[in-house]
Amino acid sequence: MPLGLEARFSELIGxxxxxxxxxxxxxxxxxxxxxxxxxxxxxxxxxLIEFSHSQIALWxxxxxxx
Length: 66
Fold this sequence. Notes:
mainly beta, five-stranded antiparallel β-sheet, globular
């Protein structure tokens, strides 16, 4: 796990994020939702998705329009 990433994700718990993961079969897949822990995200369907920081290619916080 990259240093500082777990701490940064801990600060983002409860925030909406998008994460691009390296897919084991090749390529990438995106997950979007609210971070529930540094390694879990709940998507719009209510599913809890687990991921590893070593899978992350890119990520960002989704800032909601006001």
